[in-house]
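Side project, low priority. Logging it here so it doesn't get lost.
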Amino acid sequence: MVKDGKVAFYEFVVIEEQNQVPVFKMRHFNRGSIGWEEKDKPLLFYLVNIEKNKADFELKDKSVHITYQLIAPDKLDVILIEKDKEGKLKKDIFNYSRKK
């Protein structure tokens, strides 16, 4: 994540099979590689829906929902829906394009 031309934080993401189900594992790091989550406790998002060119993952408590959707062969949207500090749902869309 870059803000005002400077790195704000990093995310490390993997999707691994766990009990024959894909699990999306995420960790956050500040600049300098300082981790946010405990070292043996990544955030775990479980697959809740899969369609052609689209996959939805959700935290067990349903407080965060992430959708990966292939819009075109070189375009990917990541839609993040999460509760803010007041408990209201907040939606952010991140548009990614493959460089040619």
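Brief comment: The mean pLDDT is 89.
Revisit when time allows.
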